[in-house]
Design a protein that fits this description.
The protein has about 290 residues and is an alpha/beta fold. It has one domain: Rossmann fold. It has helices at about 65-75, 135-145, 170-175, 185-195, 220-245, 270-280, and strands spanning about 5-10, 20-25, 40-45, 45-50, 80-90, 100, 105-110, 150-155, 155-160, 180-185, 200-210. Strands 1, 2, 3, 4, 5, 6, 7, 8, 9, 10 and 11 form an 11-stranded mixed sheet that branches. The longest helix is centred in the last third of the chain and has 22 residues, at about 220-245. About 45% of the residues are buried.
């Protein structure tokens, strides 16, 4: 049986077009409630599980999102690969609004978020040098390149800020001096937690604006972002429709073994409550 592809929709993508045989699933996790109900269905015969990151109606700020519950819920529903569709600002001249960037690196500038399933009696250190699954990103890159009229860019660095405010000009210029490509508010925690849950993760970063560094453009505002969300959502759906048939039934990447050597805690000393909490995401790695 082919594991479902998980899709987490960001700003502007609160439902996924083309899903058939849909059902809503209210998933309870040991880490609390996810952002909304998951929607399970099929596209072209391939199973998909979709979740609106901010909740339908866009009710959750980036810092308010229960990232642990969202990723745990995907894991509990059998998801092995997760694609994040996210609105971002461009930090480079050649990355235009309505372009798609497939980052392969993240810089986490958030300060108020939990980015691990572990702690409270269990210590784990996963490898995170390459935070994006190269195999999944490669399929998305080939699929994006096949969408007529769409400009796509394979690779790049995503800087994740706390928000909900957009950047100051000083911050925007600082990030540009670091060589980052796009800026957003959500993907760093998702990538970390997906790795700990042994889920492949990749981002479709949908450019809406130039943040505030470009002096011949007005600084980013909600009106500008919203104006481009519909077209970006259509592009994301076109990419995913092309990617699904290209995904092999089984994975050959290292993502599925990320926890194999990562848990340092003596198994005999893991508290019973920690075992209960972690079993849905870490499973046999705790035995």
């Amino acid at each position: 049986m082919i594991a479902p592809l998980g899709v987490v929709g960001g700003s502007g993508l609160y439902a996924m077009a083309g899903l058939e045989k849909t059902e809503e699933i209210r998933q309870t996790t040991p880490f609390g409630e996810p952002s909304d109900a998951y929607v399970r269905g099929v596209v072209g015969g391939r199973p998909i599980v979709f979740l609106a990151r901010h909740g339908r109606g866009h009710r959750l700020m980036p810092t308010e999102i229960n990232f642990r519950a969202n990723i745990a819920g995907f894991k509990m529903l059998g998801v092995e690969r997760l694609v994040s569709v996210s609105a971002v600002g461009s930090m480079k001249e050649h990355l235009h609004p309505l372009d798609v960037v497939l980052p392969d690196q993240f810089i986490d500038q958030t300060r108020r978020r939990v980015g691990t399933f572990f702690g409270d009696g269990v210590v784990a250190h996963v490898s995170f040098a390459d935070p994006v699954c190269a195999d999944l990103r490669g399929v998305l890159a080939r699929s994006a390149a096949a969408v007529p009229g769409l400009r796509s860019h394979d690779g790049g660095t995503y800087v994740c800020i706390e928000g909900p405010q957009f950047s100051t000009r000083a911050e925007s210029n600082l990030f540009r001096s670091w060589g980052v490509d796009v800026i957003g508010m959500t993907n760093a925690q998702e990538a970390k937690l997906a790795r700990e849950a042994e889920i492949c993760y990749a981002t479709l970063a949908m450019v809406t604006d130039y943040d505030c560094w470009k002096m011949d453009e007005p600084p980013v505002n909600v009106e500008e972002v919203v104006a481009r969300l519909h077209d970006n959502a259509k592009n994301a759906e076109a990419i995913l429709a092309r990617a699904l048939p290209l995904l092999p039934a089984t994975r050959s990447c290292p993502c599925g073994a990320a926890l194999q050597q990562a848990i340092l805690t003596d198994r005999a000393r893991i508290p019973a409550e920690a075992l209960r909490r972690l079993r849905p995401v870490a499973g046999a790695r705790l035995e």
